[in-house]
């Protein structure tokens, strides 16, 4: 059974498996709580036992299971029915469940495989002029040229990003007026890097590579582990910067949607 709930707290979220999906759910909860209609939380229950939970935010489902719990085939099938009804842009969950879920949704969703990376710090922070508290409009002006979906969602992006930045759950970095990166969440001493972009006329000059290396070293100084996800064909690129591939996960995306590399 899948049902919506507002009966959640940090102690409950702490019982979920320690992974990216749980940190995403926790970041949503810390940012907005349960009082807004645009963020909803759901339990997955089977034979009277809670197996996991997920959040629905910005047309994306983020699914995680409780420690020691597994999702049976019946729950995967029910989850598929829920996805068909809700029609989210994307669904993220553990790889084994994502691949099983994709079999039910192959007519409407495609499986996108991603490599998970973690940064191996060298302890050498290079001298680089980086704005760690930039104006978000300056960040957006770059990202809008790089990510088609963001170009249509200025108000939503600005509202959500500024809200998270004020609460210490996110951070943007700006190098010059041409390259930027935004931390999607900073949760439990783990930072997920996303939305890395360079304006078209400055690409090919190693700006993004330079900024990512600087961010990795800067956050490592603060005791924060830096992670990111990227398409498998970008493995060598990120390894050259200092990231190490540690696994593969899957994202289910609507077939008519446009996706972007990290």
From TrEMBL:
InterPro entries named in the record: Acyl_CoA_acyltransferase (IPR016181), GNAT_dom (IPR000182)
Source taxon at top rank: Bacteria
Entry's Gene Ontology molecular function annotations: acyltransferase activity, transferring groups other than amino-acyl groups
N-acetyltransferase domain span: 126-262
Name of this protein: N-acetyltransferase domain-containing protein
Organism: Ruminococcus albus 8
């Amino acid at each position: 059974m899948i049902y919506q709930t507002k009966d959640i707290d940090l102690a409950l979220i702490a019982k979920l498996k320690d992974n990216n999906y749980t940190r995403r759910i926790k970041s949503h909860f810390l940012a907005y709580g349960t009082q807004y209609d645009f963020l909803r939380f759901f339990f997955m229950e089977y034979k009277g036992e809670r197996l996991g939970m997920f959040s629905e935010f910005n047309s994306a489902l983020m699914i995680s299971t409780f420690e020691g719990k597994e999702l049976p085939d019946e729950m995967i099938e029910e989850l598929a029915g829920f996805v068909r009804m809700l029609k989210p842009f994307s669904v993220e969950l553990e790889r084994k469940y994502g691949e099983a879920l994709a079999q039910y949704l192959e007519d409407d969703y495609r499986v996108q495989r991603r490599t998970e990376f973690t940064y191996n710090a060298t302890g050498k922070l290079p001298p680089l002029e980086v704005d760690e508290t930039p104006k978000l409009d300056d960040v957006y002006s770059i990202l809008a040229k790089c990510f088609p979906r963001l170009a249509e969602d200025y108000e939503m992006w600005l509202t959500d990003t500024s809200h998270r930045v004020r609460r210490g759950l996110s951070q943007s970095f700006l190098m010059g007026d041409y390259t930027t990166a935004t931390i999607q969440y900073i949760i439990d001493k783990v930072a997920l890097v996303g939305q890395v972009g360079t304006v078209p006329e400055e690409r090919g000059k190693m700006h993004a590579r330079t900024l990512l290396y600087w961010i990795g070293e800067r956050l490592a100084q603060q005791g924060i582990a830096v992670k990111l996800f990227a398409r498998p064909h970008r493995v060598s690129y990120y390894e050259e910067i200092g990231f190490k591939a540690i696994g593969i996960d899957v994202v289910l995306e609507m077939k008519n949607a446009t996706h972007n590399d990290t």
